[in-house]
Amino acid sequence: MTSRERVLCAFAHREPDRVPCWCGASTRFWEKAKRELALDDEGLRLRLGDDFRRVFSAQRVADADLSPGATWRSPFGVERTGFEYGQPLTHPLARASLGDLRDYPWPSPDRMEVGGIRGEALRHGGSFAILGGEWSPYWHDAIDLVGMEQLYFRMFDEPRFVEELFRRIVDYYEEVSRRTFEAASGAIDIFFIGNDFGGQTGPLVGPELFRRFLLPPLRRLIDLGHRYGLKVMLHCCGGFAPLLPGMIEAGLDGVHAVQPSCAGMDLAALKREYGGRILFNGCIDSHHVLIEGTPQLVRRRTREVIDIMKAGGGFVAGASHDWILEETPLANVLAMFDAIREYGVYRR
């Protein structure tokens, strides 16, 4: 099987030739791995056995200079500072009214160029599963714009404000992704989006609030992907198990970076309860196993995870977070991917 065939077979909840592999890593880890193995980007992906490739839109014109101390600016004008993407410097809509949302300078989808995406996807020759579309972190953008505490308060005090806030954020992401899928017709397989609805001890919102405020925007994005014949996969950190029924009802095809160290994320229970209805991607502990363990421990735990998750398809193996950190020993990451290929074979 090609990587693409393998991944789509797993999404169809059938058993491919072997469990597909996923690798997501921080820039610092990726550069370290290339340097130590003397490989380029594609060479490293091939060494790890990554069955996915990703294509991106590009910003047409660079933003104006950042403010002093800022390191990054979101499409919605929120500047951040600190490690990697950092934390927001301000919450520009913290005191906004419902009427103020109309006057806020929302970004135009025209700021993003999508014309080169099809060629970039086809460069891989149809061999790999292609991820595309905007990351669409509408939950995080709302937190940046309003502030997390204020966002929670307004869910109770001003629900129409919260609904309109999410609508305007998703309007932007939905349209850029729609243009991407039109421009790259037939060249993308999976609409990959990201919103962290869970924390270490459970969901960041309960199922009732999730269904009221966060599921409708997610459903819009899922429906968009399905209209273009794509699978839709959500990156979601933390203990989000109580939210899974809503995600499945909305038609989500896969959840990514399942973290077994978080509350409620018992792998056997997840597979038993939901494994026939949604694909699980990740599941191999990034923290206590990949960072703190030895290659021998990594191989053993990887085999245990595969034994739990692989039956019947619906599983992609990889680290339990999409941002393998620089401090993760390269030997452990190699041991994980080697073990996936060794133990992930389906018997015929």
Looking at this protein, list some descriptive labels.
3-stranded antiparallel sheet; single chain; alpha/beta; TIM Barrel
Taking strands numbered 1, 2, ... along the chain, how are they ordered across the largest sheet?
A: 1-7-8-11-12-13-14
Rounded radius of gyration (Å): 20 Å
The low-pLDDT segments are none
> Can you name the CATH architecture?
Alpha-Beta Barrel
Quote the beta fraction. 5-15%
Structural class: alpha/beta
Mean pLDDT: 97
The number of domains: 1
Beta strand count: 14
First-to-last CA distance: 14 Å
- Which CATH first-tier class would you pick? Alpha Beta
What does this structure look like?
The structure is a single chain. 44% of the residues lie in helices and 14% in strands. With 348 residues, the protein is α/β, with parallel strands linked by helices. The protein has a single domain (3-343), classed as TIM Barrel (Alpha-Beta Barrel). α6 packs across α7. It is globular. The two termini are 14 Å apart. 43% of the residues are buried. The model has no long low-confidence stretch (mean pLDDT 97).
Brief sketch in words of this structure:
This protein has 348 residues and is an alpha/beta fold. It has a single domain (3-343), classed as Alpha-Beta Barrel (TIM Barrel). The chain contains 14 helices and 14 strands.
